[in-house]
């Protein structure tokens, strides 16, 4: 039913736009990114879909016939110097389902990767992006205001589309796993159970900057040391309260002034935790607060926990999951598993307005956000067939 | 014997060169720094000393009469936006002793503060600075090669002076404490017992960069976490092997790539320890190596200990110490103590070629390397009198 050869050809065509080594460098709203969006609109037209690009750069190809419809897609821009499949896979699989005759709209949400603001495309689509926020946003690498980028991309003044109420029975996003769980287990397909919630904080420790030699250990107030002690305690205690699939990560530690012979007077830590289960998140968050409170009682350098962001888990729809699971068992018996997504995806926002589900392909060596990212073509082909079969079963039910 | 009013007036004059708020910004070889060296040479001439500036910027004023002589001095440049006394105090106290009729040469060693290379002036003076090293050195903030700075300062091609063998019975350096021990104890004079050795390392941890969400806790190799665990272990175990006055400090931690959602694949730590007792240093160093070895057995991210620098402690001469102690007891009975110096000074290098000693004045609030650095004028005046009395007693013995 699915023309997998055409599907793979489309992927290889798309990777030529913004090629970087074996990957792609196609940041949002750049020349290459806009070229890829026009490429997509041409492919949509060829599939018999009606294409449209909106004021935030979302590209949709609408099925011209009667519903019920499914929405299928992902994002089309890339991280800097990253891979050829992250995002592109989900969009091109939509084209494959359309070409196979399924009643799908295909969509590419703008800037899921957050060059300007994470998930602004999908958030705009569900009505959760205000103009005031667009006014505030700027590129995280070079600071160009989003308004300026949209203008340069020719999108200024163009209205932003909203999800048509009642049109879709669900949303499907196929994506690379970005981890090694499928590969390590020797499996080929992942039916996603949900997308983790991410809680992020900045921990700020305040001490007293001073000379490393002239200040005794007793009198110093070393903000870096208080941070290390707290992080070591988190390391010891989180395993006691976490779930089987929880993750927690310290991504950045900054000592100020950061000189070899100066006791740090200030320390900032970026810390985050993830799980798909809200009860487990609550336990870990409670433990974090308790550890910070205990640190503040005991240490000389007080810590302030500044929330940076918090998302809620997005559970994948049970019926959609089952359809995908049945399709996987039919096409890849014993070679699939259910699993959560540790990374955020557009699907987590679309899940707020309709049933949503995701399908994972393996990632070779788990490489992600890197130009060496890759997946075997036979697994890509298998997964798009599972996606189509799952979509068909779900619509038939 | 010492004209303390003139001494204080000299200090206030000198602070006008490169004034910054209540402090001074006079980095080595800048216009202001060279102006201060010429100012010094004029003061030396007035004192009846024969001034000379050499090829590294050392400024010496030689006593014209018979010996035995003492060498008295410190450094005249400052850290960026720092205080008015750090270094200047020791140089101007030398002028005060010369004016009081003591047979002293006065010296300002270049770049003790290490804008280009720490202690290059005093090291050059004792014959431990090769031309090849001067060729390699560059400004640590803006990268200008030392050779270029010397040329711009008009010192190119000028020969570098060496300590005249047999001319001096000792070296004296008065300096602010840069800590709070005198102030906390309510004391006014510190007779320094020795200058700590400083051992510095860069600890490099190597893990695997990966996605914070998509990588399970079991499979990740978080270089930052291995670093935190080791630093926490050092924090626990060093108190068991350290001495009463040891210090150890982590000044910088760098996680790479340092992004909130990326597991660090690499971590660098700048760590140092200080003590005046070589046996204690050996114990702490041994424990550090043992902890790194244990970490490498247990952790997934190996640590490499890269030595950055190691100095040896410089003990102050017993006879010079005693002379200063007797002078302190005579002029400030019960208001002084013996104490080590936790910071490095030119004296630690001069100690390699002659008996050397230091005298500390209190630092208000221990503030150092900051424009708010200060000491009460009555304490400055008291200490220069103790310095002169100590010098006289030592020469008479």
From TrEMBL, chains A, B:
Alphabetized InterPro entries for the sequence: Amidase_Cbmase, Bact_exopeptidase_dim_dom, Peptidase_M20, Peptidase_M20_dimer
SUPFAM superfamilies (alphabetical): Bacterial exopeptidase dimerisation domain, Zn-dependent exopeptidases
Annotated ranges, domain Peptidase M20 dimerisation: 201-297
Cofactor: how bound: Binds 2 Zn(2+) ions per subunit.
Cofactor list: Mn(2+); Zn(2+)
Keyword Magnesium applies: no
NCBIfam families associated with the record: hydantase (TIGR01879)
Self-association and partners: Homodimer.
Annotated protein name in UniProt: Zn-dependent hydrolase
Organism this protein belongs to: Falsiroseomonas bella
């Amino acid at each position: 039913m699915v023309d997998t050869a055409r599907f793979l050809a489309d992927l290889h065509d798309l990777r030529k736009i913004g090629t970087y080594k074996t990957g792609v460098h196609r940041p949002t709203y750049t020349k290459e990114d806009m070229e890829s969006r026009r490429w997509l609109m041409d492919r949509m037209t060829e599939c018999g879909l009606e294409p449209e690009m909106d004021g935030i750069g979302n590209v949709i190809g609408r099925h011209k016939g009667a519903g019920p419809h499914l929405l299928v897609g992902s994002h089309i821009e890339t991280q800097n110097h990253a891979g050829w499949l992250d995002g592109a896979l989900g969009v091109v699989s939509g084209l494959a389902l359309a070409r196979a005759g399924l009643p799908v709209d295909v969509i590419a949400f703008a800037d899921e990767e957050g060059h300007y603001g994470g998930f602004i495309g999908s958030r705009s689509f569900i009505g959760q992006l205000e103009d005031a926020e667009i006014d505030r946003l700027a590129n995280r690498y070079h600071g160009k205001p989003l308004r300026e980028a949209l203008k340069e991309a020719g999108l200024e003044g163009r209205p932003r589309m909203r999800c048509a109420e009642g049109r879709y029975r669900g949303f499907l996003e196929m994506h690379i796993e970005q981890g090694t769980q499928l590969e390590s287990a020797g499996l080929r397909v992942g039916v996603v159970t949900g997308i983790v919630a991410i809680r992020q904080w900045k921990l700020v420790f305040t001490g007293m900057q001073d000379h490393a030699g002239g200040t005794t250990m007793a009198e110093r107030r070393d903000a870096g040391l208080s941070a290390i002690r707290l992080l070591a305690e988190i390391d010891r205690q989180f395993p006691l309260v976490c779930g089987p699939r929880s993750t927690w990560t310290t991504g950045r530690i900054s000592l100020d002034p950061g000189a070899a012979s100066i006791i740090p007077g200030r320390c900032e830590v970026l810390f985050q935790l993830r799980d798909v289960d809200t009860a487990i998140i609550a336990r870990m968050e409670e433990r974090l607060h308790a550890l910070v409170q205990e640190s503040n009682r005991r240490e000389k350098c007080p810590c302030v926990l500044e929330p940076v962001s918090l998302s809620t888990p997005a559970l994948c729809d049970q019926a959609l999951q089952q359809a995908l699971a049945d399709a996987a068992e039919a096409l890849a018996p014993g070679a699939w598993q259910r699993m959560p997504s540790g990374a955020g995806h557009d699907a987590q926002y679309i899940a707020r307005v309709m049933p949503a589900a995701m399908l994972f392909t393996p990632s070779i060596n788990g490489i992600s956000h890197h130009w060496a990212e890759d997946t075997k073509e036979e697994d890509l082909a298998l997964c798009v067939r599972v996606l189509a079969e799952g979509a068909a079963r779900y619509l038939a039910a």
